[in-house]
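Before going further, learn to read the protein records used in this course. Taken together, the tokens spell out the fold as the letters spell out the chain. A record is reproduced here so that you can trace the correspondence yourselves:

***
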Amino acid sequence: MHFDVLTLFPEMFCGPLNESILKRAQENDRISVALHNVRDYATDKHHITDDAPYGGGGGMVMKPEPIFAAVEAALANETDVPVILLSPQGRLFTQAVAAELACYSRILLICGRYEGVDERVRQHLVTDEISIGDYVLTGGELAAMVLIDAVTRLLPGVLGDPGAAVDDSHAQGLLEGPHYTRPAVFRGWKVPEILISGNHAAVARWRREEALRRTFERRPGLLERVELTSQDQEFLARLAGAGSAEDDD
């Protein structure tokens, strides 16, 4: 997959793109990333990319001309490429959205700045707007890094364990349960016996129940969107019953 990123601060991407999984994904030709400095597409002497908003008000607005020029130069008339504006006004980025985007061979990301971008960019250039959460960042660069990382993890051959992305929190609608590694006893705290029992079916069920428990305790709203077996429902009913009994004490 190829990512094009339009930004005023391309240097911000150097660290994340040159470490860990993203670095290996590029070295193994699973992804490529092209950073486009929007200032390079401003035609005035000072390469100005923002201006005061019409109608007054605080802050500055990114000008449409450099953004349009940068997108058109990057895509060179290629069609069917999602042009995504990272914006707090966009649809919420989720694991399902990451999976949706992982189906494309190329994505172009526009990192907003200041008070935002000229509305004509939204109306006539971008095909999608995405927000990584209900809060405001200084710019879209960090959001773009989050999107690139989340989508890259879902591409074939990126992770060492082919099933790792499937088992991640949110991948199947649930939060992940607890994990343990050596030593079996640390400061008197023991690894659950079932994990060293060698009973693979029992371990699988324990992990499922712990994922259900953690989701029930921390993000119960997620359970409304999960396909639950009758065994899952019975376990959740026991959790709910135990919680009610504690409240009555």
Summary: Residues 200-218 form the longest helix (19 residues). The chain has a mean pLDDT of 93.
